[in-house]
């Protein structure tokens, strides 16, 4: 019975059309997930830990699917499709293509730190591929990149980078983290990696995930399976069939969107960044093509755990959380031989589904705040790696005088050790060099009235002093 249905479903499930519905199927183990996938279902998201997988099916196969999986749940229509709004906006409370053009142009016009949107290439249908740079740092400062809308039906990823740009530019000069980041890094943003797919969904939303290159006979190429590193390694989460939602294209970087983007990224050489997607509430890091650790596993893991401590996102490799994927952007960013390893993560923004926050500004505000916290921590961690620090050691009477921090950033207690000499004074300075506190003991409870931000801890011994930068983030 199940077998017959499977064959019928395989033929039709792979093409996504309007009127699609999402169904949440209970799934806990690897074999639960592969069973669903092998039946030809398009997996929208899922979590082994939480025990579910969402599949997108066209309206006429809803009943069959519910029969195959009697414990499945039909999710609300507005979670898979944008419903019409009365205010005539493009995408509900998300920013549509025109909303984006207006937002980024205005931001550049009203803020000296924001460059006018600049083209790095042309999409399959001839649209401009654009990046925005925000910085107050000297030329040559390290780059950090944030991308969104690689998949055309994931508008929440775009809300996050818009919020991030707005926060950085608004808070510059008052929030010391924003100030520190823009004074020391070049922040690059690609708000729409896949403008053709997004335009196809506009106005009013839709389910176009891939780009709009139909020349292979299907309905587009999955940009996030078309990157060159380990492209087509196997067929797990990446398909050779043009009708599949994870069709990887005819060759590595066959698509204008990936080719132009990778050439441009290699030209700015970011230290790392986030390739934003939706949905589910995860933070993924490489390797994606097979579930093995990279040489930077401990960094990915410790940063990942730190960044997800407050928002509760599940953190790990794609294969830990869902299933392996090859040809995606994080593997390329980390592994491709055209550049040094770039420390990129893929956050899957915590929404209920692709369009679930369309009429819910509270949901958008909340997931943007969750992601903003991760953005700040990522930047602070990446900038620490390039040595934007004060000297941590000095010579005192022929021996080394050193100050070492415990964990950083800190939320409640700053721990540190001083070796080589007994400090005659300890102080905490803000980025303007003003003493704002005088800690005592090597485990110092941070006063509640000390704002979140970037500070220096300084130890003095006679005419020598050593300091270390730390960040308070609660
Ligand atoms: Zn995606």
How would you portray this structure in words?
- This protein is α+β, with helices and mostly antiparallel strands and 474 residues long.
- It has three domains: 74 residues, 2-Layer Sandwich (Alpha-Beta Plaits), CATH 3.30.70; 289 residues, Aminopeptidase, CATH 3.40.630.10; 80 residues, Immunoglobulin-like (Sandwich).
- Helix content is 28%, strand content 24%.
- The protein has twelve helices and 21 strands.
- The strands form four sheets. Strands 5, 6, 7, 8, 9, 10, 11, 12 and 13 form a nine-stranded mixed beta sheet that branches. Strands 2-3-1-4 form a four-stranded antiparallel beta sheet, covered by helices on one side.
- Strand 11, helix 9 and strand 12 form a beta-alpha-beta unit.
- Helix 5 crosses helix 6, helix 5 packs across helix 12 and helix 6 crosses helix 12.
- It is globular.
- It binds zinc ion.
- The site of zinc ion has 4 residues, from loops.
Question: What's the SSE blueprint?
Answer:
Blueprint: H1 2-13, E1 20-26, H2 30-38, E2 42-47, E3 52-58, H3 62-68, E4 73-74, H4 97-110, E5 118-122, E6 128-134, E7 143-147, H5 155-171, H6 176-184, E8 186-190, H7 195-200, H8 256-268, E9 272-275, E10 277-278, E11 282-285, H9 297-307, E12 314-317, H10 318-321, H11 329-335, E13 343-349, H12 361-385, E14 393-396, E15 399-405, E16 413-419, E17 425-430, E18 435-437, E19 443-445, E20 453-461, E21 464-472
Parallel strand pairs: 7-8, 7-9, 9-13, 10-13, 11-12
Antiparallel strand pairs: 1-3, 1-4, 2-3, 5-6, 6-8, 11-13, 14-15, 15-16, 16-19, 17-18, 17-20, 20-21
Helix pairs in contact: 5-6, 5-12, 6-12
This protein binds zinc ion.
């Amino acid at each position: 019975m199940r077998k017959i249905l499977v064959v019928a479903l395989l033929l039709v499930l792979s093409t996504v059309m309007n009127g699609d519905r999402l169904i949440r199927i209970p799934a806990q183990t690897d074999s639960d997930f592969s069973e669903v996938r092998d039946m030809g279902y398009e997996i929208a998201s899922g979590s082994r830990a939480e025990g579910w997988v969402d599949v997108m099916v066209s309206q006429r196969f809803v009943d069959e699917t519910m029969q195959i999986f009697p414990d499945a749940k039909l999710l609300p229509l507005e979670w898979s499709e944008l419903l019409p709004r009365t205010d005539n906006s493009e995408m509900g409370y998300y920013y549509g293509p025109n909303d984006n053009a207006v937002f980024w142009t205005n931001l550049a016009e009203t803020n000296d730190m924001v460059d006018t949107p600049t083209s790095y290439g042309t999409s399959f249908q001839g649209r401009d591929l654009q990046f925005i740079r925000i910085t107050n740092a000297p030329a040559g400062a390290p780059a950090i990149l944030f991308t969104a809308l690689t998949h055309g039906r994931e508008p929440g990823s775009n809300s996050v980078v818009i919020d991030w740009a707005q926060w950085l530019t608004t808070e510059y000069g008052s929030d010391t983290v924003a100030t520190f980041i823009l004074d020391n890094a070049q922040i690059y943003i690609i708000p729409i990696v896949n403008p053709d797919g997004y335009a196809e969904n506009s106005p009013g939303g839709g389910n176009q995930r891939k780009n709009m290159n139909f020349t292979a006979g299907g309905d587009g190429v999955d940009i996030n399976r078309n990157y060159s590193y380990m492209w087509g390694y196997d067929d797990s989460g990446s398909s050779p069939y043009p009708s599949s939602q994870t069709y990887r294209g005819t060759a590595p970087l066959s698509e204008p969107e990936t080719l132009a983007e990778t050439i441009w990224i290699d030209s700015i050489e970011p230290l790392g960044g986030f390739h934003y997607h939706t949905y589910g509430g995860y933070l993924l890091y490489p390797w994606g093509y097979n579930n093995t650790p990279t040489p930077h596993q401990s960094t990915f893991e410790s940063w990942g755990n730190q960044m997800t401590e407050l928002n509760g996102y599940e953190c790990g490799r794609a294969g830990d959380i869902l299933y392996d994927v090859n040809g995606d952007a994080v593997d390329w960013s980390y592994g491709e031989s055209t550049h040094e390893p770039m420390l990129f993560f893929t956050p899957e923004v915590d929404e209920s589904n692709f369009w679930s926050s369309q009429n819910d500004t509270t949901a958008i505000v909340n997931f943007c705040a969750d992601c903003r916290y991760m953005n700040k921590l990522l930047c602070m961690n990446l900038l620490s790696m390039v040595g934007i620090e004060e000297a941590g050691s000095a010579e005192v009477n022929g021996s080394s005088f050193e100050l070492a921090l415990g964990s950083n950033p800190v939320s409640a207690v700053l721990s540190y050790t001083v070796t080589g000499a007994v400090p005659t004074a300890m102080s905490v300075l803000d980025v303007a060099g003003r003493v704002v506190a005088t800690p005592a003991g090597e485990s110092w409870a941070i006063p509640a009235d000390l704002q979140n931000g970037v500070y220096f801890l300084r130890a003095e011994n006679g005419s020598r002093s050593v300091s270390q930068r730390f960040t308070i983030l609660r």
